[in-house]
Specification:
Layout: H1 13-27, E1 40-44, H2 56-74, E2 78-82, E3 84-85, H3 89-102, H4 107-110, H5 112-126, H6 129-137, E4 147-148, H7 152-167, E5 171-181, E6 186-188, E7 193-208, E8 215-220, E9 231-234, E10 248-250, E11 257-262, E12 274-277, H8 283-292, H9 318-331, E13 335-348, E14 356-365, H10 367-379, E15 384-386, H11 390-399, E16 404-405, E17 407-408, E18 418-421, E19 427-429, E20 444-446, E21 450-451, H12 453-457, H13 460-463, H14 472-477, E22 480-486, H15 490-504, E23 510-516, E24 519-520, H16 537-544, H17 546-555, E25 563-564, H18 567-589, H19 607-628, H20 632-661, H21 664-685, H22 690-701, H23 722-744, E26 753-759, H24 762-770, H25 772-779, E27 781-786, E28 797-801, E29 805-810, H26 817-842, H27 845-850, H28 853-881
Parallel strand pairs: 1-2, 3-4, 9-11, 15-23, 22-23, 24-25, 26-27
Antiparallel strand pairs: 5-6, 5-14, 7-8, 7-13, 9-12, 10-11, 14-16, 17-21, 18-19, 18-20, 26-29, 28-29
Helix pairs in contact: 1-22, 2-17, 10-11, 10-15, 16-17, 17-18, 17-20, 18-20, 18-22, 19-20, 19-21, 19-23, 20-21, 20-25, 21-22, 26-28
Length: about 900
């Protein structure tokens, strides 16, 4: 049985998708090679966490990339879509920690070396899960190049970068305030802290003056840190406190003397205008302390508990301490008042624990010198953001960039390549472990910390291509063509890749940055475990197929904007796939006598053919243009409209006239056009719906040549015919008008009805007569009668006016006119009663004055709607009565 005959009646996504993806892998169709004669097109996948499973954000991100990769591949580019996964330091350590806990042990019990072995074992067993899920989605990555941020090549690149930046003085170690997560027990960079509005309080506390004469009142949102105060600060221009600057206050409870200093940082309008200075627990206080030579006392430890320096509160949890201290201050008469206050509180992006600013010795990257070239690449137009509005966001962040804390107090990750000599305390930073110190000692110890996960992913565009080696891949595929990512990680990833690319490759890592939004639930909420509103893409794929999910995500997508996930839209995409399948089945069932002839560009012979071929050519042009501009959602919409409305609902129906009733030459012509348009449309659809398009392509082609390697359709300029498109638009209006008139009097769809047309011009008459048979078929109009313009209107007929003709549906013999008049008069009475009610309400001045404006506007809308219905019903009744 040939491929055209062996076409199932019902579309089964599971069968089609599993078959074709394995076929693509077996044929190695996604592999990229260095081919100097071809133009490269490169995308590096934002590496998903090795612990992760596919979520809707991944599905959107990867579908966008796959659309671009498949499209460019068909255009003849040498496409490398490079896949990989991220070691996800904190998340992965949590997973393995939990596994050990179930075994009744911990990483501290097994030791660092064995723990790392355990993590690798876990990665080998479960780390490929996300890759398999990406394949279910249809991702056309070059899987032979699958990279991992901690594999040998990437690890080497990380050490090279660290050592190079250290030698240049751009990596340093120092004591600074860092964001600390007491739950994860590690430092976090500024952009790993998520800020949320919290309702809290401002507490006003009296600090006695050392002289015993009076107090100075400070305001604080974190009373527990009072115990770490080393000064009180006021603004130098604040007249209220000028006499106190240089004096000393006494720290409540602990009795430590505190100098009162003047500093411009203090905002006189906040609280009392006097602030406590806690250098070890606030970044701004740290700066004040640096300027004034103040001591730094840590009173909260890495577990969120009070240290010995907290005096009687040592060992308490930070919030237990807050409660106890406030009670004591109140007992001592030092708690003046409490005010409600809403402020932004930093939380760990992993576990939502409130972060604690702590003074800590950490490794940092000096970002200001590195940021300038990365800004110039954008300012000079070498890198373009889509949408353009994200350019300003990127530049603003880079202009205000702070040094990047890159050390993390965990075990899983790239261990910092710094060694300490226990003999002379020398620090050695090297790519490979040193055998001995310059002093001759071999008593060396490597730094315990690991690097921030984002450090290795910042090198992704060039480390995945072989850097630091000068590889053929690196020279050919770098810089990459486009980066696709969500707006929520511009700072985490995009900016840092820009910095590293400019520093180590002396060239930007990508030419374009395509920013997409988030996939939210139907109510517009962010999908999250806590809300329980997440939707598993794999469940959607299991039920509806990957093509349906992909098309749903694309048709709702506009660059940079969030989209809402509606199940109704999934159903619509599923129906679209079924529509394509059924139309294809119709075409295949009607190709008898055309086997082996192929589907070359046809020469149209009538209006219907000129119209569909012109619409196809316009669709090729417009979809290609949208893809060039990264308007993927608009491209998908154009395809939907063309396939569903113009090809399936109109041309397929019109083709039946030639297939069933035409001469042999007309039949072959219709077959050729159906096949030509359907084949080309499948190529346009392939980047969006790769599986169904491949299945249909193979049945039409009758060969095993994959659509993956076929050529993207060129715009067939000779087929563009604006005049035929405009004429056919008028014809379609006539058909719709007939259908609407039939529906108004409930004529069954299968019943033939006499229709009279009075064309508005000679050209309209000629066009309508050309497609007379199509109108008869599409509108069940038989006979279809043409009258000269100005002829007498048929008796007892419904009428409609279009640009091409006046349309009349005579009702005599079609419906019982008297009964129809009775029905319409009953409807008219109901509408007039409702109109009277609405009009009376809108005449009530009390209602107009008191009701909300939206209610008033809604009632006015109803009044307008009722007026139109009454007018239409009266016109119909008059037409039926012949008045």
């Amino acid at each position: 049985m040939n491929a055209r005959e062996d076409f199932p009646k019902v579309y089964d996504p599971a069968r089609v998708e599993s078959k074709w993806y394995q076929e693509w892998l077996d044929r190695d169709l996604f592999r990229a090679e260095v081919r100097p004669e071809k133009v490269p097109f490169t995308i590096v996948i934002p590496p998903p966490n090795v612990t992760g499973s596919l979520h809707m954000g991944h599905a959107l991100d990867e579908t966008i990339q796959d659309v671009l990769a498949r499209w460019r591949r068909m255009q003849g580019y040498e496409v490398l879509w490079l896949p990989g996964t991220d070691h996800a330091g904190i998340a992965t350590q949590h997973v393995v920690d939990a596994s050990l806990s179930k075994e009744g042990t911990s990483r501290y019990d097994v030791g660092r070396e064995r723990f790392i072995e355990k993590v690798w074992e876990w990665k080998d067993e479960y780390g490929n899960r996300i890759v398999l899920q990406l394949q279910r989605l249809g991702c056309s990555c070059d899987w032979s190049r699958l990279a991992f941020t901690m594999d040998e090549k990437r690890s080497r690149a990380v050490r090279e970068v660290f050592a190079s930046l250290y030698r240049k003085g751009l990596i340093y170690r120092g004591d600074y305030i860092i964001n600390w997560c007491p739950e994860c027990k590690t430092a976090l960079s500024d952009i790993e802290v998520e800020h949320e509005e919290h309702k809290s309080s401002i507490w006003y506390v009296r600090y006695p003056l050392e002289s015993g004469k009076g107090f100075i009142t400070v305001a604080t949102t974190r009373p527990e840190t009072i115990l770490g105060d080393t000064a009180v600060a006021v603004n130098p221009s604040d007249e209220r406190y000028k006499e106190l600057v240089g004096l000393r206050a006494v720290l409540p409870v602990l009795g430590r003397p505190l100098p009162i200093v003047a500093d411009e940082y203090v905002d006189p309008s906040f609280g009392s205008g006097a602030v406590k200075v806690t250098p070890a627990h606030d970044p701004n206080d740290f700066e004040i302390a640096t300027r004034h030579g103040l001591s730094r006392i840590s009173v909260i430890d890495p577990s969120g508990r009070m240290t010995q320096d907290a005096g009687p509160y040592a060992g308490l949890d930070r919030y237990e301490c807050r409660k106890a201290l406030l009670e004591e201050l109140d007992r001592l008469g030092l708690l003046v008042r409490v005010e409600e206050y809403t402020h932004s509180v930093g939380q760990c992006y992993r576990c939502d624990t409130v972060i604690e600013p702590l003074l800590s010795r950490q490794w940092f990257v000096r970002m200001k010198p590195l940021a300038q070239p990365a800004m110039e690449a954008v300012l000079q137009g070498r890198v373009r953001f889509v949408p353009e509005r994200f350019t300003k966001i990127y530049l603003n962040w880079m202009e205000n960039i702070r040094d990047w804390c890159i050390s993390r107090q965990i075990w899983w990750g790239h261990r910092i390549p710094a060694w300490y000599c226990r003999t002379c305390q020398e620090i050695m930073v090297t790519v490979d472990p040193p055998e001995a110190c310059a002093c001759g000692s071999q008593d060396l110890e490597q730094d315990e910390d690991v690097l921030d996960t984002w450090f290795s992913s910042a090198l992704w565009p060039f480390s995945t291509l072989g850097w630091p080696e000068d590889s053929d891949d690196l020279r050919y595929f770098y810089p990459t063509s486009v980066l696709v990512t969500g707006y929520d990680i511009i700072f985490f990833w995009v900016a840092r890749m820009m910095v590293m690319g400019e520093e180590f490759m002396k060239e930007e890592p990508f030419r374009n940055v395509l920013i997409h939004g988030l996939v939210r639930d139907a109510q517009g909420r962010k999908m999250s475990k806590s809300l329980g509103n997440g939707i598993d893409p794999l469940e959607v794929i299991e039920k509806y197929g990957a093509d349906t999910l992909r098309f749903t995500l694309m048709t709702g997508n506009t660059p940079g904007n969030d989209m809402r996930f509606y199940w109704e839209r999934v159903e619509s995409s599923r129906n679209f796939a079924n529509k394509i399948w059924n139309a294809t089945r119709f075409v295949l069932m009607n190709l008898e006598g055309h086997e082996g002839e192929g589907f070359g560009e046809p020469v149209p012979t009538n209006l219907a053919e000129r119209w569909i071929l012109s619409r196809y050519a316009s669709t090729v042009r417009d979809v290609t243009g949208c893809l060039e501009r990264y308007e993927l959602g608009e491209a998908a919409r154009l395809l939907y409209d063309f396939v569903w409305d113009e090809f399936c609902d109109w041309y397929v129906e019109m083709s039946k006239t030639y297939l069933y009733h035409g001469e042999a030459s007309q039949r072959r012509q219709a077959q050729g056009i159906l096949g030509y348009v359907l084949l080309g449309t499948m190529q346009l659809l392939h980047p969006f719906m790769p599986f169904i398009s491949e299945e249909i392509w193979n049945h039409l082609e009758g060969s095993r040549r994959s659509i993956v390697g076929s050529s993207w359709p060129r715009v067939p300029e000779a087929l563009l015919d604006a005049g035929s498109e405009e004429t056919m638009t008028r014809v379609k209006e006539v058909v719709r008008a007939i259908r609407n008139l039939r529906a108004e009097v409930n004529v069954p769809p299968s019943r033939l009805a006499r229709v009279v047309l009075q064309p508005t011009s000679d050209s309209s008459k000629e066009a309508l007569q050309q497609v007379k048979a199509h109108i008869e078929s599409l509108a069940m109009a038989d006979p279809l009668v043409f009258q000269e313009t100005g002829s007498a209107r048929p008796d007892q007929a419904l009428a409609a006016v279009t640009a091409a003709a006046e349309v009349y549906l005579p009702l005599v013999g079609l419906v019982d006119v008297d009964k129809e008049v009775e029905r319409l008069e009953r409807d008219l009475a109901l509408e007039e009663t409702e109109l009277e009610r609405v009009t009376k309400r809108l005449s009530n001045k009390e209602f107009l004055n008191k009701a909300p404006q939206e209610i008033v506007q809604k009632e006015r809308g109803r009044q307008h709607e009722r007026l139109e219905k009454v007018s239409r019903l009266k016109a119909r009744i008059d037409a039926l009565k012949g008045t």
